[in-house]
Amino acid sequence: MTRQVYLDNNATTMPAPEVVEEMLPFFTEKYGNPSSIHTFGSSVAGDIDLARERVAQLFNCTPSEVVFTSCGTESNNYALRGAAGAQPEKTHIITTMVEHPAILTTCRSLQRRGYNILELPVDRKGRLDLDRLAEAITDQTLVVTVMYANNETGTVFPVEKVGEIVKSRGCLFHIDAVQVPGKLPVDVNKIPADMISISAHKFHGPKGVGALYVRRGTRLRRFMTGGHQERGRRGGTENVPGVVGMGKACELAISSIEEERKIVAARRDSLEQGILKAIPNCAINGDIESRLPNTTNIGFEFIEGEAILLMMDRKGISASSGSACTSGSLEPSHVLRAMGVDFKSMHGSIRFSLSRYTTDDDVDYVLDKLPPLIARLREISPFGMHARLPETAPR
Ligand code: PLP
User: Fold this and answer.
1) What are the C-alpha distances in Å from 375 to residues 30, 111, 304, 321, 378?
2) What are the residues facing 353 on neighbouring strands?
3) How far is CA 36 from CA 43, 47, 49, in A?
4) How far is ligand 1, taken at its centre, from the CA of residue 102, in Å?
5) Can you tell me which atom of ligand 1 is nearest the CA of 199?
6) What pTM was estimated for this model as a whole?
7) Which of 156, 157, 159, 199 to mutate to test the pocket of ligand 1 (most atoms within 8 A of CB)?
8) Is the pLDDT of residue 174 over 90?
9) Within 10 A of 109 (CB to CB), how many other CB atoms are there?
10) 20-34 burial, b for 16+ CB within 10 Å, e for fewer?
11) Using the 8-state DSSP alphabet, how is residue 264 labeled?
């Protein structure tokens, strides 16, 4: 049987066994509806309260500031559409060119309703120009929304500094922190954000559940109309197993930050260094000074990312390319394009994202299989001849 090495943890993660164990009773004996009057249902409300407390600990906030949602995408939608609904007089939104589609397409949908959207550019390493951000804020600005860490490159934005600028100008500040729990702290006493989105499946929790932190006093128009759940902020019967699982995942995430910073980052570094040493004409995309501990994005010149992924898949290695397949044509990633990554490596960029379950053996396996695979692809690539020229890419 082919060995499986999962290096696509920014796409989704393995649910932690402790998380699954806590969820199981809610699929079997504890299936009541927390809104019911009878004890069988209402007792489950206590389990939701515990989960909310655990999520609140992740944010270092009060439980009433946590709203459960169905995913990171819904949290982002609620933040932006909720803010727009509550302050219709303000019609300017600032974001960045490298956000996840959950933000960019929501902004574009608001644009079609008359909103003025500014997507700030980034530099070659994916960094924001904070002066430019400050200059862009006007009296009309409703909200500034930026990601904490980029899902493709791992580049971390200085959200504390961004928050200081945004709050000094009196507008709302939303952070898409979906890639961050368990990797970096998300402490709302240090980060002056009004709203923060997270999603359980990105940090060893279940799929189908997310949360939005909403600072006390922030006015949001409810996005999901319906029942009185979530103190009237989001209608719909709670995803009880999911919420319970997310609570446990938050507890584990709080305690895993050190391990992530030391052990996972060391494995990521040995994978990265091993690849750069063994394979000519490749370079890191992103800001190595300020990056998630688990992520590396490497551009392999003169070959297609999809071909690399397919060949790695045959060896049991799961990773991801920066590009999305749009209507049959291979579009390079909007993130790498915004960074101005060279054409010759943009199409051959691969994201490797590790987790606390990645082992040294996994890293060794990839370092054994990848170099011959890249060499083979370069031989058969129509651009292969360039790959045999002297090294052209910065290392
Ligand atoms: N924001 C970022 C930065 C992400 O990486 C993702 C998922 O890849 C999302 C939002 C969307 O999260 P979800 O899959 O929970 O909707």
Assistant:
1) 55, 46, 13, 18, 5
2) 8, 295
3) 9, 14, 15
4) 7
5) 15
6) 0.95
7) 199
8) yes
9) 14
10) bebbeebeeebebeb
11) I
Q: Residues 57, 63, 69, 72: is their CA dihedral positive or negative?
A: negative
Give ∠ CA 393-97-302 in degrees, rounded to 5.
Answer: 25
**Does the pLDDT value for residue 391 go beyond 70?**
no
CA 79, 81, 86 angle in degrees (round to 5)? Answer: 90
Rounded-to-5 percentages of helix, strand, coil across the chain: 45, 20, 40
> What are the structural domains of the chain?
5-12+257-380 (3.90.1150.10), 17-253 (3.40.640.10)
- For residue 132, the SS3 value is helix
Residues constituting the chain: 395
Q: For residues 367 and 373, what is the distance between their CA atoms, to the nearest angstrom?
A: 10
Q: Is 250 a catalytic residue?
A: no
Residue-wise pLDDT tens digits, 89-134 = 999 999 999 999 999 999 999 999 999 999 999 999 999 999 999 9
